[in-house]
Structure formats: C-alpha cells, structure tokens
C-alpha cells in the first residue's frame, strides 16, 4: 500500500462487533492516525452474527447459498434493522465513546452505490456498483468518520442486503480508494502456518487445489482477488485482532496478505 492522501476503506468483519475491547482499540488507532495524518478513512461493515441471533429469536430459518444469505423479501425489514440499525449504531456509539466524530450511513445515502437484485433465487440480496461519492466526500472533508452498513436501496426504493465484502468494493470504486478487508484471520497462511505476504490468481488457485486454502477462506480469497482486479490495485486482507499493528497499516505498511490484480 502506498502512503498518500487517497481514502482508505476498511471493511470490518461482523465478528469484531461482538468484541468491545478490540473495537475500542481499533477506533483508538483510527483516532491517533487521524490526528497524525490527513488520510480519510471510511468503514464499511456487515454484522452477520447479529442477524443470526435475531433470526433465531424470531424462529426464522437462516439459509445460505454459496456463502450468501438467502433473504426473503418479507424478512428484509428485520435484516435491515439489524444491520443498518443495531450494528451501525453500535459501531457509531463505540466510535463516539472513543472520541471520534462518526456518521452512520448506508449504501443508499447520496446515491453512493447503485444496487439491484443479484439473483431472484436469493430474494432481497443486492448487487452493488459504484455510484456518486459527492455526499461521502463532503462528510470526509469535515474530518468525520463515515461508518457505512451494507444495506442498500434499489431505484424503486426496495431495501436490499448486500454482502459486506462486495459492498466495500463498490464504495472503494465510488471513492477511487484503497481497500483493506479486516477479519478475524491474519491473512493467508502457507502449509507451515507462515503468513503469505502476497498472492495473485494463479498462486491462489494452486493453493486451493493443494488444499492449503480451504472452506470459508476460499470465498474471502476469491472476493479479494476480484476486488483487486475491479479496482486495479492490491487489496489487503488482515486481522483486527492486533490493533497495535493497525496504525502501521493505515500508514501504508502491509501487515497481512496483499492480493494482486492480474
């Protein structure tokens, strides 16, 4: 990653929302960095565990196809409430507690992302494409931290649930920003458990074929490689578990695995 004033999009995995201490350290690192540097930062988040809890409490079945949550249209108000409501405000509240001027948004605000139905079989699951970043730029210009949920609206005003990784790619495209996918994994590990500093598509395919990259990590790796190709720049996958390293990351140092465009 290069050190510049180009905005940095941080996609925050939903599991981080359940760990207040880690979140506080994350926002502390962002606050410190914002005081030292002039680089705008934007957070895009999911919140799958909150949705799972809510669905269980309401006795609603959770069905996933190829890693995407099937979202019946009659359930989208509930899911939007969990993501754009509870998850977004929990994050905003933690940021404010840590002294940050945070603004809670969704993909629809200011026409930031254009959202359409991804696949009728998935229901109210949206495909997000870059839109107009004017409103988001205005928020960044006053020094605030935008915290954006992965809930969008179609042109007809229909609520849509967008995969948070894909939402972050669309926001990065709208802002022409660099992108970091922060999750509970440090990056991609080789067969001996060592962090792999960078990967291209061919190397990733070989590791998948060799069963070094397996299960849910395959989805994350493919999403990162697609993002690198769409944005035309390296994408970093790193962990939020070691907040003391995050200031280095914000400053342009790689701390995880970088995925390289073809």
UniProtKB/TrEMBL annotation:
The keyword ATP-binding applies. Its main location: cytoplasm. GO terms for cellular component: cytoplasm. Substrate binds at residues 47-48, 69, 161. It comes from the Bacteria. InterPro entries: AceGlu_kinase-like_sf, AcgluKinase_fam, ArgB, Asp/Glu/Uridylate_kinase, NAGK-NC. The record marks 11, 220 as: Transition state stabilizer. Belongs to the acetylglutamate kinase family. ArgB subfamily. This is Acetylglutamate kinase.
């Amino acid at each position: 990653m290069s050190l510049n004033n180009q905005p940095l999009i941080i996609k925050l995995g939903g599991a981080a929302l359940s760990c207040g201490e880690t979140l506080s350290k994350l926002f502390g690192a962002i606050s410190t960095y914002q005081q030292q540097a002039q680089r705008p930062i934007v957070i895009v988040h999911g919140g799958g565990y909150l949705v799972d809890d809510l669905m269980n409490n309401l006795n609603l079945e959770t069905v996933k196809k190829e890693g995407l949550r099937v979202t019946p249209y009659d359930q989208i108000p509930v899911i939007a409430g969990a993501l754009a409501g509870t998850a977004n405000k929990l994050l905003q509240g933690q940021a404010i507690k840590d002294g940050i001027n945070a603004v809670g948004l969704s993909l629809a605000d200011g026409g930031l992302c254009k959202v359409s139905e991804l696949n009728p079989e998935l229901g109210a699951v949206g495909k997000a494409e870059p839109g107009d970043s004017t409103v988001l730029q205005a928020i960044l210009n006053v020094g605030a931290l935008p915290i954006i949920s992965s809930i969008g609206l179609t042109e007809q005003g229909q609520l849509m649930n967008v995969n948070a990784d894909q939402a972050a790619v669309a926001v990065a495209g709208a802002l022409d920003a660099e992108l970091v996918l922060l999750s509970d994994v440090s990056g991609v590990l080789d067969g001996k458990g060592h962090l792999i500093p960078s990967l291209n598509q061919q190397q990733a395919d070989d590791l998948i074929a060799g069963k070094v990259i397996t299960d849910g990590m395959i989805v994350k790796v493919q999403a990162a490689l697609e993002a690198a190709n769409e944005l035309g720049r390296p994408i970093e996958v790193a962990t939020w578990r070691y907040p003391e390293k995050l200031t280095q990351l914000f400053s342009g140092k790689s701390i995880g695995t970088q995925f390289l465009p073809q």
